[in-house]
Amino acid sequence: MRYKHIEKAGIEISTLSVGTWAIGGENYGMVDEKDSIEAIREMIDNGVTVVDTAPVYGDGRSEKIVGKALKDGYREKIYLATKFGVACNPAGGDLIRRAGYDAIINDCESSMRRIGTDLIDIYIMHWPDVNTPIEETMSAVNDLKKQGKIRFAGVSNFTKDMLEDAQTYGSIEFVQPPYSMVNESAKELLLFCESQGIGTMTYGSLGSGILTGTIRKKPQFDKDDYRLTFYDVYSEPKFTKIMELLKCMEQIAEIHDRPVAQVAINWSTQKKYVSTAICGVRNKEEAKENCSAFDWMLTDEEVRVLDSVLQRLAL
Predict the structure, then answer these.
(1) For 7, which of 18, 197, 199, 257 could close a Cys bridge (C-beta 3.0–4.6 Å)?
(2) pTM (2 decimals)?
(3) CATH architecture label of 3-313
(4) Is the bond into 128 cis (omega within 30 degrees of 0)?
(5) Percent of residues in the chain assigned helix, strand, coil, to nearest 5
(6) Could you tell me the residue ranges of all domains in the chain?
(7) Across the chain, how many H-helices and E-strands are there?
(8) Keyword ATP-binding, does the record have it (predicted)?
(9) Is 57 a catalytic residue?
(10) pLDDT tens for residues 69-103?
(11) Residue 34 backbone dihedrals phi, psi, to 5 degrees
(12) Tens digits of per-residue pLDDT, 220-252?
């Protein structure tokens, strides 16, 4: 495993993080709780020091599974990240955003109870809430820090302007934007965060599975599957372009005798402005494969070739 220092937080974290959206078991394919717990522990056993979850992943189920996985001494080995500001609408339908003071305090208590911990290391605002002043949101975050319930604050899916606005009212130590070979839209934000010593936790690192190289025709996911509704990689013309990218990735993978997914993981984590890449895992085998990506590195020339292909394809 490789590690990077987060200047603003004053800690070192692994360049790979455990992602737990899928293990919530809602609109993300089949998952097994026992396999999920084993996968999380396998990642930690292989040097991963960050586990990322959220209350809306399966309406609390992901946090509960993470809590089970972190028993038996595993909690002390990692930095725990979870989120606030998004809730399941009790009336059904879409998720609702709520980042008011009382909601945040209650969300924090609920997350700690589900996970079975008295401390959240990295507490992240999941999405911007245009209906709540950021000053009110940050007031709750600052109070949670003072109370010793959270160590660091983060924001996810924020623009640079939103981040700077939030920092007017308190310190933000981490950001969590989407970033991968098939989505570089947050690159400017990541570069800014690097210059400010802010830790970057990138999600969607394997492009909703398409960068594993195992998907070569459009999958028949359920119409509500998040891999279709949240990501755009299976829509045209992007899908066809990604198939061309995979040919280049395959050639590099063959040279190193490694899976294609490890090319994608190394491409992201070798970027100076990516502190840690979040990758979801469903079982021990996937966990081992992801972690073994750090047994080798892409050469500078291989990174240049991949970047050249990405520029030409304009994904």
Answers:
(1) 197
(2) 0.92
(3) Alpha-Beta Barrel (3.20)
(4) no
(5) 45, 20, 40
(6) 3-313
(7) 11, 12
(8) no
(9) yes
(10) 999 999 999 999 999 999 877 666 678 899 999 99
(11) -60, -45
(12) 667 666 666 667 888 899 999 999 999 999 999
